[in-house]
Design goal:
The protein has 414 residues and is mainly alpha-helical. It contains 11 helices and 2 strands, in the order ααααααββααααα. Helix content is 75%, strand content 1%.
């Protein structure tokens, strides 16, 4: 799954984590000020934060160059240390996906910065506390449109590129498995594992990976913002004054949801894996029945389909209470930030613009911490596919073929 696309996967991913930590530490340790050496030394302008021009400001341009240099150094090392035929896609392609994910997070930061002036303008217009003209109002909408157009254009390109990246990974797995087909073709469901499971694995891994990176980057971007707002909003319901109230509320609420749903859904990965097994056994018998008259007889088909039916009904039951728990939590999650902000809203400590900024930042941080909550069903599906491909690959390394998932229970024909 990984060795077909990445050079020496275990060492590669550990080196990636190490190099990312070094680059991030160097950046916050002073490298972000080195742009002045090449004429990109203008400090970030707070007034520019909610404007589309922020994306080509000196600070952003220097970061783009810094990211490019770090990527090229990392790719050059692996090209020399362990050349791989898919390195351009697995290393440079993955780096581009990381950058595009970072850019999307910065779009969210820019929109959050735009919320303050816009909603304060709306509040001033509605309460008639200050004169507001149509030019001012439309000007703020045009500002948002500029950010949105950049985001849309970048998002379209990101989806196009990621579609190709996913297919390249699937192609790498396909080539790898087909090069060992003489060993693998005897494994139950071999054709399905090469044709379908490789596609599902690459697609699911891409989605989960991008969401994980996006969650981490969102935390890095929005936690300082939420911490800044916590100096204004210090009171929590039932607890009173709490230092860094918004940060603690988002962390504890997300941790509770993650642990709660992981506990409720603990049985689902095994059931999904078993579902793949019984479906494969049923499909295999039907395929044999196309060429052999003594296969796929009614008693056999009924028996195999009964396994499918029983497992699906178990899945339906377990997903019922899991979905109930998940929906209750997510619906409560919609009003949770208002509960936290209630004392400050009632006391009139914050403006409408600040409230919208806090709500958006709070939502971004909570969503990042709730990565497992939002991805649990996808993780369950990925685990079932991973188990199938892992047992499949064991044959390549000399292990005996896996024991058939469902015993052939065809009744003897008199």
């Amino acid at each position: 799954m990984f060795v077909s696309f990445f050079p020496r996967p275990k060492l590669f991913f550990w080196s990636l984590v190490f190099w990312a930590a070094v680059c991030i530490g160097l950046w916050y340790g002073g490298a972000r000020d080195w742009g002045g050496l090449i004429g990109l030394g203008a400090p970030p302008d707070p007034a520019q934060a909610g404007r589309v021009s922020v994306f080509w400001s000196d600070a952003f341009l220097w970061f783009y160059l810094y990211f490019l240099l770090a990527t090229l150094l990392f790719a050059a090392f692996w090209q020399v240390y362990a050349p791989h035929p898919w390195a351009r896609w697995s290393i440079l392609g993955s780096a581009l996906i990381l950058f595009m994910t970072y850019f999307q997070v910065q779009v969210s930061v820019a929109v959050n910065a735009w919320y303050g002036p816009f909603y304060d303008l709306v509040q001033a217009a509605l309460a008639k506390t200050a004169p507001v003209t149509l030019t001012q109002f439309y000007g703020e909408l045009i500002t948002f449109a500029g950010i949105a157009f950049v985001a849309v254009g970048f998002g379209v390109f990101m989806r196009f590129f990621m579609s190709h990246w996913i297919f390249r990974w699937r192609q790498a797995m396909n080539d790898y498995y087909m090069s060992h087909w003489s060993r693998l073709h005897t494994v139950e469901g071999a054709s399905q594992r090469v044709q379908e499971d490789t596609m599902r694995f690459s697609t699911t891994m891409e989605g989960l990976g991008v969401n994980l990176v996006s969650s981490v980057m969102t935390l890095i971007a929005f936690l300082p913002i939420l911490l800044q707002y916590s100096y204004t909003i210090t009171e929590m319901p039932f607890f009173g004054e709490v230092p860094h109230a918004l940060v603690w509320a988002s962390i504890l609420w997300a941790a509770f949801g993650t642990g709660f749903l992981a506990l409720v859904g603990i049985k689902l990965p095994g059931l999904e894996f078993k579902n793949q097994r019984v479906e494969a056994a049923y499909r295999k018998e039907l395929v044999y029945g196309e060429d052999h008259a003594d296969r796929a007889q009614p008693p056999t088909v009924r028996e195999l389909f009964s396994h499918v039916r029983r497992n699906y009904f178990r899945l339906y039951f377990h997903y019922t209470y899991f979905n109930a728990a998940r929906i209750v939590y997510l619906q409560t999650d919609n009003i949770f930030p208002y509960i936290i902000l209630a004392p400050s809203i009632v006391a009139g400590k914050i403006t409408l613009g600040l409230m919208q900024q806090v709500l958006n930042a709070f939502e971004q941080v909570r969503s990042s911490f709730q990565y497992l909550v939002n991805s649990w069903t996808t993780i369950v599906e990925l685990l079932s596919v991973y188990k199938r491909l892992r047992t499949f690959e064991m044959v390549i390394h000399g292990a005996p073929p896996p024991v058939p998932e469902v015993e052939d229970q065809r009744p003897a024909v008199a």
